[in-house]
Write a structure and sequence with these properties.
By secondary structure, the chain is an alpha/beta fold. It contains 17 helices and 18 strands. The strands form three sheets. Strands 8-7-9-6-10-11-12 form a seven-stranded mixed sheet, with helices on both faces. It has a six-stranded mixed sheet with strand order 13-14-18-15-16-17, with helices on both faces.
Length: 462
Amino acid sequence: MDILNLKKVYLIGIKGVGVCALAKILKDLGIKVVGSDTEEKFFTDEVLKKEKIKYYEGFNEKNLEKELPLSLVVSSVAYLLPSSKNPEVEYAKKLNLPIYSYPEALAKIFNESFGIAICGSHGKSSTTAVLGKFLKDLNLEPTVLVGSEVIEWKSNSLVGKNFLKKIRFMKENLEKLKDLNWVKKNLNNLPLFVIEADEYRSAFLNYFPRIIILTNVDIDHPDYFKNEKEYKEVYLKFIKNLKEPKILITHRDFPLQKDVLHVKAKKLKKKLPFPIPGKHFQKNLQLLNAFRETFSLPYSLFLKSLKNYKGIKRRFEIIKKEKNLVFIDDYAHHPTEVLSFYKSLKEKFPNFKKIIVFQPHTFTRTHFLFNEFLKAFRKIKKDKKVELIIFKTFPSAREKDLIEKIKNLKTEKDLAKKLNLNYFENIDSLISYLRSKINSEKKLLISSVGAGDIYKIFENLP
């Protein structure tokens, strides 16, 4: 199926970050787009309204019926699982409509382009946004898909001008992509497409990129990957998907086939100018500097682009900043991420008393990474200026079957008990406690941390 020549696409789960971005890209390519999702509100509601993309709230086969004829149905992976029994997916099957998962549909466009995939356990979204911004600042007209809203764009995607024309140009010159010098000279003629490539359920194996930028490999998604070996193997499989000019940019060595150009990022003597503190950000920027060097792009413009970066939603996002009161939200949900976030806080706001409210994301992650969470939180606890609070877990329907099989499930309550931390199950009780702290502390920073909905606390704090 040539997805670029479709007339009308229906997207199930359209408020999902990736699906919403795909909807915008399809619309900008001249395809009629409509979709559906739950009634729950997300930042993507505003994106869809701004883009004038029609969507239904609530899943019903009548929604689909009203929009016929359809060229394709695209669904979030969650609604394609047998346990989901989504009525619109079931109805689309009855009508024998072609159905793609979100990664499959995205792959149909990405694999036609000069694809640059950012992958890794942590830092994918920010790294994708920064590279997308840099390429845009260079007037290279990139198409970009990020897993969060890029504040500067007020969207989580960008569609480059002349994208289809550039795809035709690349198809006419496929053999020349083997020559890196030719690629460098023609970068402005190529359909650059930068995506955040997610490893969950091996989704990124759908993509065949020209360049892979790999941030790091720390085992995650224990509800899907059985062990660390399996987790690392899926990255090696993904690297084998590389197409000409076959470039891999990393910090570490990998066993690779000979025709892959492996670029290792250099440690820089000086910090790169960046508005968000933290060594983990600097390490990811070093990867982008290696990309810049590979394509002989101007260093001065790279530095300027970094300085002007405004960030993305839920990544060290400053919600409120007053002289004596600061609110910050962050998506960190893995032990490594939470520890890195804390270090950034300490660097940026050394004189503030800090409250870190952590909401675990999925029961399986807490259970399988329990010892790693303990180690990370014990390090944070040593700081007498920090109070750690644990809020009840934000669950996922995808882990329901696995949880039932786990004996002696270690939960967030066990985490709080082991570390002797305050634990809250009720949002109103938590807000009441935080209000009392605001009233009693002179210089206070409150941070919401986790991939769930813990950021909503700020709606009810002064």
